[in-house]
Specification:
InterPro entries: ADH-like_C, ADH_N_2, ER, GroES-like_sf, NAD(P)-bd_dom_sf, Zn-ADH-like_protein. This protein has two domains: 3-128 and 307-337, Quinone Oxidoreductase, Chain A, domain 1; 130-284, Rossmann fold, CATH 3.40.50. Helix content is 26%, strand content 25%. It is built from ten helices and 14 strands. Helix 10 links the parallel strand 13 (309-313) and strand 14 (333-337). Helix 2 packs across helix 9. The protein is globular.
Length: 339
């Protein structure tokens, strides 16, 4: 029987972040599509810190169940249709996106799969987290002309897109945060950030934020939580709007499980300055998918936006790529490219 390779969870770490030794690259039978399914040969898949939460036991209400030892990892992928039901509208060779990454072949439901076509000049750009940033900034906070926008985790998959999108939507000043001076320089020189607060710098995070945004923050797109969220709330201007789209402080906590992200907030600023604070998911705004894809394609072709990403070649390097993501070695999205 034909076979393929996939990355499975070998064992959960007893302590600390997942490492390559907790994963296994296994040869297994090629998936056989059930009725109504499409067989896809994956070409690219994204490596995300969010998988740490699934490895650690998951969260109630999350879109994916926890991973058990022996389960293949999951994540966003783009692949080429090998076979499809006659009534699916799909043909061999069509590129489609789905959530069964970390494997060479996948059987996925045909429902909801549409050919990606040439809507974006590079198919890999479909793995961008720009839609999350776009939906958060247009639906969650409704960025206005002249707003001062703070994006925590500015060097991550969401953050590298969010700063650029905020600028294109009319923000007057865009501030990011990151843990590396080298990344901070790239955010300013390559991605249009006006200033970057560096976690762990000699000056405290609140002091750096006060210098970067002396008049306060109008919009917060938070991917981190923790002390950065606390500092942002303290720096909020009257009527500020904040959306929480991630919790990297918990996902990357070596002392935790990736399933909690605790934060201490002073509620007085929220009340006195009428600050809105809400959790946000683009899944609640399905109309943004086509809207984002259209605007993203136009911006890419016009050279008004870039998709910062790192390509890693082959399944053999996928486990190490996850370690590198957990350690914050890269800027932007990390993509495994399959031959």
């Amino acid at each position: 029987m034909p076979t393929h390779r996939e990355i499975r969870l070998r064992t959960r770490p007893e302590r600390g972040l997942p490492a390559p030794e907790h994963l296994a690259l296994v040869q297994t039978d090629l998936p056989v599509p059930a009725p109504g399914e499409v067989l896809v040969r994956n070409r690219w898949f994204a490596v995300s810190a969010a998988v740490r939460t699934l490895i650690g036991g998951g969260l109630k209400g999350a879109p994916f169940p926890p991973l058990e030892p022996g389960d293949p990892l999951v994540g966003a992928a783009v692949g080429e249709v090998v076979s499809a039901p006659d009534d699916s509208g799909l043909r061999p060779g069509d590129l489609v996106s789905h959530w069964h990454g970390w494997r060479e072949y996948a059987a996925v439901p045909a429902a909801g799969r549409t050919p990606l076509g040439d809507s974006l000049p590079d198919p890999v750009a479909h793995l961008s987290q720009g839609r999350t940033a776009y939906a958060a900034l247009t639906r969650g906070t409704e960025v206005r002309a002249g707003d001062t926008v703070l994006v925590t985790g500015g060097a991550g998959a969401v953050g590298t897109m969010a700063g650029q999108i905020a600028r294109l939507l009319g923000a007057g000043r865009v501030i990011g945060s990151t843990g590396s001076p080298a990344k901070a320089e790239r955010l300013v020189t390559e991605l249009g950030y006006d200033a970057v607060v560096v976690r762990g710098a000699p000056a405290s995070f609140p002091a750096q934020l006060a210098e970067a945004a002396p008049e306060g923050v109008d919009v917060l797109l938070d991917t981190v939580g923790g002390e950065q969220l606390s500092a942002a709330v303290a720096a909020a201007r009257p009527g500020a709007r904040a959306v929480l789209v991630g919790a990297l402080s918990g996902q990357l906590d070596p002392e935790g499980t990736g399933a909690t992200a605790r934060v201490e907030l002073d509620s007085y600023p929220l009340v006195l300055k009428r600050v809105s604070l809400r959790g946000f998911s683009p899944l609640d705004h399905p109309e943004t998918e086509a809207e984002w894809r259209g605007r993203f394609g136009d911006w890419l072709r016009a050279g008004e936006i870039t998709f910062p990403h790192v390509r890693v070649a082959g399944m053999d390097r996928a486990a190490e790529a996850l370690r590198e993501v957990m350690e914050g070695r890269h800027l932007g999205t990390v993509v495994v490219e399959l031959p």
